[in-house]
Write a structure and sequence with these properties.
The protein has 171 residues and is of the alpha/beta class. The chain has a domain at 49-166: Dna Topoisomerase Vi A Subunit, Chain: A, domain 2 (3-Layer(aba) Sandwich), CATH 3.40.1360. It has helices at residues 2-8, 10-26, 43-46, 61-70, 97-104, 120-135, 158-166, and strands at 28-29, 36-37, 51-58, 75-79, 111-115, 139-142. The chain has a 4-stranded parallel beta sheet with strand order 4-3-5-6. The chain has a two-stranded antiparallel sheet with strand order 1-2. The mean pLDDT is 93.
Length: 171
């Protein structure tokens, strides 16, 4: 993209640079959920139509957008802005666990859905958040992982298939 803009559209590059500078100056974090927002309380947190008793914990703002596009979740979010990674020096304080604990202690949340990635760090983060959630007496659930809709079993890798079988549910 940089080469294209430099070679063929320098005016477009300048517009893009100005837009990025404006975004850097005007976009911060929602005070409640830590998602990116131009105002103190993002539209999702401010919405009266959202169910405040169900909280979905995600790794980053892009995850919020993905879940919102699916239009299946009507609760609220908490954005970690990362995941636990002790080898990289990322501990609970770096991903806002203290702020999450305060939110869970408010009495409004009844269930926490952990929607972190299926990586080793994502699973460790999910486990840690599950412990924190249960410690305050709330229900902790994990998003399902497994076979994609329309997927053929013969094309699914063995790790995904093993996880899908281990985490099966009643029909």
């Amino acid at each position: 993209m940089a080469f294209h803009l430099l070679e063929r559209n320098r005016e477009g590059a300048q517009r893009l640079a100005r837009a990025l500078l404006e975004a850097m100056a005007g976009v911060n974090h929602c005070h409640r959920c830590r998602n990116l927002s131009e105002v103190a309380l993002c539209a999702i947190c401010a919405s009266e139509r959202r169910d405040p008793s169900v909280l979905c914990v995600v790794e980053n703002p892009a995850d919020v957008q993905s879940i919102e596009q699916a239009a299946a979740f009507q609760g609220k979010y908490f954005v970690l802005m990362g995941r636990l990674s002790p080898l990289d020096g990322v501990g609970p304080e770096a991903i806002g666990i203290d702020k999450l604990k305060n939110l869970l202690s408010s009495g409004e949340v009844r269930e926490v859905i952990v929607a972190t990635g299926a990586t080793a760090e994502g699973e460790a983060t999910a486990h840690y958040i599950g412990e924190v959630t249960r410690a305050v007496g709330l229900r902790a659930t994990r998003i399902a992982h497994g076979i994609p809709v329309g997927g053929e079993l013969e094309y699914v890798d063995s790790t995904t298939l093993s996880h899908a079988i281990a985490c099966r549910r009643d029909l």
